[in-house]
């Protein structure tokens, strides 16, 4: 510990290094319920790439674990501190370095909040699409490290699709520039892409260059109410089959609707058990046609009620309600949040199986979904203080993970593996693929100091 | 050689192994002018993943180089045989395994020709966008290995954006499945993405799962003629600034126009020195508006003539003419094809600098470009049999490579590094990034047998 402290104080100003237990406690874990963590040995708040490199070089030399941290909004434990670790918080590296309208790109430090980047881009008539529910708080560095998604990804893709290049501090403490700033490029291995979703295990991202789009056309909102999950699932399949390309296609089940109603009195659950929210942003008449196509698909699948919302305030309120689901459920207990992604055609079956699993384990599993992508967020809600229910909830959580793999899907669509999905990942990937992960990890982080013990087990 | 042959005959039927010099000569190189190659020791034509794995395992054990080959249409020497190598030709693995309309994906063997996949998708009302000029001949395996682009990539992205997952034979001869079949996923490192553009140096791709789009709306074609490259470059900038998102934005310079005219008598060079071809596929009225926006941008930049083509046959002929440029130039001599990609705002300056370089080296450099992406294909045309001109051409080629790096661009936008861009790559990437390449190569191909000596130098 003395070597750690004296080393850190050599490379950083004293006011950038924290070791007091009260000061470091707020940096010990992210928002994943039930993921293990310890207090870190120290928290550092670097202000420059050079400071990050100096910290990592020191830690590599001393064999000290390094855990990168954005806003701590992660849901898998990826940012949780491990024993004896230094947490590198990027909150002081929050500068938008440049927004280039002619090139349609932005250079940002990792600590920039997603919504802040989006707002800054909007001032230039530009748009950064990835829109995780955490966008008011989560940072670009964290978004890149988990390959964050969001509702608009059904049409516009995930964070990976917007990352052109980055500056990274490697496990050796070297500063490298990966990727490019041009629209296309295939000069060597896609190392920038390799860092996306690597959850801080291969390098610390100190700057990101993202691709931007022009401001998009206005969105129309289409709402559909359904009696049950199968009919909502059919509606999603009908939309896909219709050829329409909605810019959002979200599902909210009855548990979620009621939880929001109980809290906010929005009357969401008055008209049905399952709500589908779609948006269409094709320009002009084409967008109107598309919205009508989506509504017809809802009706064909047996919607009890459907409407193209003509009231923008009402439409915005519905999407705001979707963002309220998580806090509304958190009022009821600990929430174990799933993030499975399954083939679109399997969504209905998987939702039915999740209801079965909930019954078999006597737990409540509420569900929201980026339904158009097959990305489901079943949330196991465990009453506070009930240890037995907690154990049943964890068992149900793992059954849902297995269900995703068995359905030809993946254990994580957009939240990352962190700690909570490690068992599932080892089931999803073959031993040979896990060995490739270890070989690459060892190649880029030979000291094994970067976020150790996360994502995949270090030994086979 | 005896160990090689007896080993190959143990794992493959005799009619799948060729060693006769006449038989293997057609597999010794791709279409890159001036890239070195030797006759391979053997060519194998496996029919299954198991056969590929057996070949690689044998070669790994014996230390025999393995060079993967699609249709051999590459322009960088990536598929060129090296001394003592076994070339694995995927021409017999050309099956479209499945096209799934509901999931909007296809599973294909690597030897499927790009246009064949596109035609098969069209029968299902689906679309595989990447459209390299080689699409009538080039294969998906090669497209993935070079991250191929094409005209429509300015709106729809490159091959990487469509690769969901793949089956790969690693350098150890193991068969692994990488990536996923779901719309989203972040379960572990993006190893499928790492294989895209790796030019066969990290594994042999034996099956690819690609994302598809729904059939797109009809395209409008807008043509603009310009007196000189600077005004055409300004037109491209005007289009980008307008917010229009054309589905193609191609530039053809006077050398190319004249070469096609001299061959095909199309009259392309009658109206101007530089042609811009744009397409707009936004649906309905929005597409009409977009086409008009593009035309206005052309005019604002000083087009001598512009037109929205109302004659589909004429429009198709113009894009066909663009594809005739390469064979038209090849009639005039050896063509050293560049593939640099520069920031969009640098296009005009870079085009002017290329003209200077041509003058300084007394060579002809013709130019086509995916102008909307900043992806330029300057082509140095060297008269046949003129060794001195050949040397001047190679010198000019390397100056253009350096120019791309100096302009903040990359040495290859969509053709790959192969052999021809190795010097440029080492200039573009820092020594630390090259070391990361070597570490990853060593991690996944410890015997160093997969396409050795390509992309980056094996030692620093």
TrEMBL record, chains A, B:
The FAD-binding PCMH-type domain sits at 36-215
PANTHER family linked: GLYCOLATE OXIDASE SUBUNIT GLCD
Q: Which InterPro entries match?
A: FAD-bd_oxidored_4_C, FAD-bd_PCMH, FAD-bd_PCMH-like_sf, FAD-bd_PCMH_sub2, FAD-linked_Oxase-like_C, FAD-linked_OxidoTrans_Type4, Oxid_FAD_bind_N, Vanillyl_alc_oxidase_C-sub2
**Cofactor(s) listed in the protein's UniProt record:** FAD
| Gene3D superfamilies, alphabetized | 3.30.465.10, 3.30.70.2740, Vanillyl-alcohol Oxidase, Chain A, domain 4
Question: Which species is the source of this protein?
Answer: Actinophytocola glycyrrhizae
Query: What UniProt keywords are attached to this protein's entry?
Result: FAD, Flavoprotein, Oxidoreductase
Q: What name does this protein carry?
A: FAD-binding oxidoreductase
